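Chapter review: from sequence to fold.
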Amino acid sequence: MKLRFLAALTAASLAHAAPPGFESIYPAGAQAGSTLTIRVTGAGLEKSPVTPWFSQPGITAQPTAKPKEFQLTIPPDTPLGPCLVRLQHPEGSSPPRIFVIGKLPELTEAEPNDKPADSKQVPAANAVINGLLEKAGDVDSHPILAKKGQLLQIRLHGYALGSPMDPAIRLLDQTGNQLALAHDSHNLDPALDHLPNADARLYVQVMAFAHPPAADVSLKGSPAHIYRLQVTTQPNRTEVQERKHLTLPDTVHGTIAHPGQADTFLCTLKKGQELTATVRASTTGSLLDAVLRAEDPKGKTLQTADDGAEENLDPELKLTAPADGDYKLILTDRFSAGSPSHHYQLTLTPTAPQVTAHLDTHSYHLEPGKTLDLKLKVTVKGTLKHPLTLTAEALPPGVTQEPLQVPPKSADVTLKLKADPTAPVSQQPIRLKLTTQAPDPALSTTASYIVPFTEPRGPLLLTTDVHPWLTVSKPPGK
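The token string follows.
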């Protein structure tokens, strides 16, 4: 019995070759409109050629003469922000990694730079420095030219890119004295602001501890310890958000510029009127850990919203007015902090039903003549009276799906895909869309999966994605 079980297990494991490994991409971002060389790392990449795929259309990657290296071309009109990249070969796709499209000039670190005196790189400000902590104990030093009265804003993305690191940064003066230290400012990534009192050449040092955490607290490094260090300057001007009267719908931008500051907004509501107030701060890289409080016209607290769901630190508050009057929305920082980097966007909308759908994984495999079950968790907030329709889009040739009716309530559902026996070998991203039916309000949502990462302790630059991968391939020997 045991031998038959092992034989069956071996046969199952050989049914599909492993998809490509993918541990890191370096550099992990580039300026829109640029051409650059990137290098990827991962298990088994030497054995099988891979092709990069980017979730942002228009980006092209051509292999160079060196293994695991590609020349990347990014069109000037590519939307700014993080996107995802996969490595694919005929047996499937790797898990996605994060790649950032920026607007600032980009540099790549120049070794040696363990000590400030070692660094020969051109001093950078208003630029992004791409770096790699390649080995245990590695420390990178980057020179910065600071101007008196011009605020330095220093942000590092390492953990947020999916690197296995808990990074820290130190700001040093030209003699090596520490001016500031930052660690765990946003998720595990550090950020700091510094106002120079004189023109000076300063140094930013980058180092990292292990993630997931370990008993050994020594500095870590590996070919996957990539980071992006952004250094920008701005005049030292801060503005306190004045009280403002908002309507439905409305959006306002502001900054909790000083410690202990509270921004207050008024909204006139009728009895029974419903609103949804949404804050975007942490998800845009702000240092604000926002707390939103709603008060009635007499000053009584009705609701307080703090962290959202799925590692989202930004609050969302839903309010039904118990009477006519002016209601207050009060926005603060959870720890009473404040700075020019504690910016936010507050949006008010009439409350309406919401539908979301989450997939259980990022990629799927299907053989010709077989079927595949895609499992989704559908969440409905609010009231819908009629079933929703779940449809798969952008399916490969020879793969079909019958539209599925989903109950108008939260539920776990399964969508079945079928591959024709003659379906050709192919792979591509697909999309799963949920839509409502009249007379329910017109809603459409695309199913997402959670970007895989080990032991999340805060949000990545992208936490979810709507491009699950489908590979159609024949079993070995056919």
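Two observations follow directly from the output. The helical segments are 2-14. The two ends are 29 Å apart (CA to CA).
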